[in-house]
Amino acid sequence: MDGGAAELREAHRLAGHADRVWALAWNPAPGPGAGPVLASCSGDKTVRIWKRAPDGAWHCSDVLEDTHNRTVRSCAWSPDGKLLATASFDATTAVWVYDGADFECVATLEGHENEVKGVSWSPSGALLATCSRDKMVWIWEVQPGNEYECLSVLPGHTQDVKMVQWHPFLDVLVSVSYDNSIRVWTGDGDDEWHCVQTLTEADNCGHSSTVWALSFNHKGDRMVTCSDDQTLKIWDTSADLSQPKTGEGHESWRHLSTLTGYHGRTIFSTHWSSEGIIASGAGDDAICLFTEEQSGMAEGPSYKLVLKKDKAHDMDINCVQWCPQDPRLLASASDDGTVKLWELRGSLLD
Amino acid sequence: MVMELINANPVVHEKKERRVRQAPDTIDENAAEPIDQLEIFDHIRDIKDPEHPYSLEQLNVVTEDSIELNDESNHVRVTFTPTVEHCSMATIIGLCIRVKLVRSLPPRYKVDIRVAPGSHATEAAVNKQLNDKERVAAALENPNLLGMVEECLSPTFD
After folding, report:
1. What secondary structure letter does DSSP report for B34?
2. Contact A209 B128 (CB under 8 A)
3. Could you tell me the strand order of the sheet in which B75-80 lies?
4. Which of A133, A315, A335 lies closest to B138 in CB terms?
5. Which CATH number fits domain B37-153: 3.30.300.130, 1.10.3720.10, 3.40.50.620, 3.30.160.250?
6. Domain map (residue ranges) of chain B
7. What mean pLDDT, rounded, does chain B reach?
8. Which of A53, A98, A317, B102 is the most buried (most CB within 10 A)?
9. Which chain A residues have a beta carbon less than 8 Å from that of B137?
């Protein structure tokens, strides 16, 4: 459609948070006729909801405050777009409902010993996972009447767990940690959950420092992780670890590719768009975009940089998220207190 | 309550004489004023040791040479030397240096803090913790820890 080299154009700058912005979440189902809806959470202890008006301008429609009394580290919308979960350094996870006028906190999940760092809804919306500095991953079951029952407390990581994320359509959970490892968890259908694989530097070409984030591709057969070691790693996740092992024992996820030399400091966030573009945001204030290269079939897929946006923010970039309704719209959050919306223009194939 | 000191008898060094820096020649107010090693040292030399009434400079925990600066890439690295090899105060000292620099330097600066190689028994663990901004942010929301840091940064100790 529009030729020329790929370009990331700053379209909107959302100011309002009084401290660093840690994380972002696009509502996957904002409702019929509604435009995109973005949630952002911050060291200022609040969550802000951003909406696009019919004239294209963005504004903050709601500020969720007076619930968390410390940093809100991450947030996640349920798959039906009706619930927003927020994880805080105050050791709680809150669940909010939008009643058409206001956001109301309808549940507070307590149990972690200290800072909750990540929260994620399972693809069906029936389960919620949280992770914490207490090294644990918790699985919660959503019950009628805004009740949440803890199904499982999962030990395994030896240091704080930075993020949890479910597979896009399987009940397979991934956690990443300060202990440099990536763990894969599944249930046996009987509410018993266990670790089915651990990806480490020694055994799997894994990361050599803190793993900060992960994202699956649209089909769920690839995963990208990013780290303090300044690399991104691509994993083949086509083996279905949610099924019982067949006996051969070689069904597992494996390392495919390491993207190194693109960021000069810790990579805090990565997100895979529905069109197959991997975005990364880092402590060097830059955003990078990568796509799979179609050549080199003998060695398997390889990934190339298509664009690097230096000085995308004035300070560290903590989160990058593609908009599900508009796959060429990227949101980024920074220590500089702002959220930016970027339009990807031009061709990625040259 | 009497607490046992980790290093009961530290070696105390003389404070260096303060050099007066030249005022810049340029009068362009919009020009970014370059920052030098000494300016960064001036920000951290008077931080009080967490367990002694002496400054980090007096205890040789930081020196001017322990500061590396690349002003073009906005990068600062401070290497400090705990007074004893197993000093459990190393994390607090590192936190104090980080907080002081974040409060003093323009936000464009990237600050790395580490203990001097070979100077601490759990060097890698201390360095990793001091440079994980999420852990630092969480630590500074802890009123006890923040209180200790503020006390060390309090300018009225001597």
Report:
1. P
2. yes
3. B67-70, B75-80, B110-115
4. A133
5. 3.30.300.130
6. 37-153
7. 87
8. A317
9. 20, 43, 71, 89
